[in-house]
Write a structure and sequence with these properties.
Elements lengths: L3 H10 L14 H34 L6 H37 L8 E8 L2 E7 L6 E5 L1 E5 L4 E7 L4 E4 L7 E3 L5 E5 L5 E7 L11 E7 L1 H12 L8 H13 L27 E2 L4 E2 L2 H9 L1 H4 L12 H12 L3
Parallel strand pairs: 1-5, 4-10
Antiparallel strand pairs: 1-2, 2-3, 5-8, 6-7, 6-9, 9-10, 11-12
Helix pairs in contact: 2-3, 5-8, 6-8
Length: about 325
């Protein structure tokens, strides 16, 4: 076991990086929190070493003859040194926390892209404000951010308390029913990251995730322009059949802009085929995964609000084909 301990430690440290790790900051806010963490780690590490050193010193002196007055003078000096160390350590942490708070709110007065995110059991409604207008573009379970530009996220909940957390980009903040909390995100590194609900919210809390893509501003604007368009017209008979079945069985809960489907109970599916995953990060996107989700959602994500749809295999295949084409 002792020989295996270093290997185990190395294996655990391997989890300190990646697309869902606060120890691999990819944004200004995450970098600020990372620096505060390193400061706290350094202060606590120094305190630990001092305590261990004092313990070793006391053990080495045990049993030595020493007059009582001399021992009391040493004890008083030790208490004064301990008190000064505590005050110094706490002061450093307070100042560091104050500066970190200032840095986290430094962008609050700047112009920013507005995104409204609402937590549901167990998925995410995501809406982008178009310029300074009152128009919002809705999507779900996938957040796109422009690199180097601040995005102001307005967070709320439709049911229970959730918590929005993208560890690589920023810290987490609660999403409370009836209230909008605000979080600024300023990513500096392009790539895919993973967000997660950070507050236990029920049976499928662990499967309430979302994909985050940080991309160059021009690429982001092109993506947002595509998201603003209506659903692409169906171009084949199987897709037309799938659209008809979808309108008959799914449109009460889901919306597809440009069609008669306008439900609000579930995620907007206007461009669902272009997303990286379905069911809030539970399953990788594919036509087969869509068909499985339509047929047996409770088997894939027990407790989800999505009911099993009693469709004939040919109808389920057509609906999956239709949805996969909504890109």
């Amino acid at each position: 076991m002792n020989r295996a301990s270093p290997l185990l430690a190395i294996g655990l440290l391997a989890a300190c990086s990646g697309r869902q790790s606060p120890l691999a900051p990819a944004g200004d806010q995450a970098e600020t929190l990372h620096q505060l963490f390193l400061l706290a780690l350094a202060v606590c590490g120094i305190v630990y070493l001092v305590v261990v050193a004092a313990l070793v010193w006391s053990l080495m002196r045990r049993g030595r003859d020493e007059d009582r007055d001399g021992a009391m003078r040493g004890l008083n000096r030790g208490l004064w040194a301990t008190g000064i160390g505590i005050v110094l350590g706490v002061t450093i942490l307070i100042v560091g926390s104050f500066l970190a708070d200032r840095a986290l709110f430094a962008t609050r007065g700047e112009d920013a892209l507005e995104v409204r995110i609402t937590g549901h059991q167990w998925w995410w409604r995501i809406e982008y404000r178009v310029g300074g207008t009152a128009r919002w573009i809705e999507t779900a379970n996938e957040l796109h951010l422009p690199r180097g530009r601040t995005t102001r996220v307005l967070l709320g909940s439709a049911d229970v308390i959730h918590s929005f957390w993208v560890p690589n980009v920023a810290g987490k903040i609660d999403m409370i029913p009836g209230r909008r909390n605000v979080l600024d995100l300023t990513p500096r590194q392009s790539g895919w990251f993973r967000g997660q609900c950070g507050e236990y919210c029920g049976m499928q809390h662990a499967h309430m995730a979302f994909d985050v893509k940080v991309e160059e501003p021009a690429q982001f604007e092109a993506w947002l322009a595509r998201q603003s368009r209506m659903a692409r017209p169906v171009g084949d008979s199987r897709g037309m059949h799938g659209q008809a079945v979808f309108a008959r069985t799914c449109s009460a809960c889901h919306a597809v802009r440009g069609t008669t489907a306008s439900g609000r109970a579930g995620p907007d599916l206007t461009h669902v085929g272009a997303r990286r995953s379905i069911a809030a990060g539970t399953i990788t996107m594919s036509r087969g995964a869509l068909q499985g989700w339509i047929a047996q959602p409770q088997a894939l994500k027990p407790g989800t609000s999505m009911p099993a749809i009693p469709l004939a295999p040919a109808d389920a295949d057509a609906v999956a084909h239709y949805l996969a084409g909504l890109r």
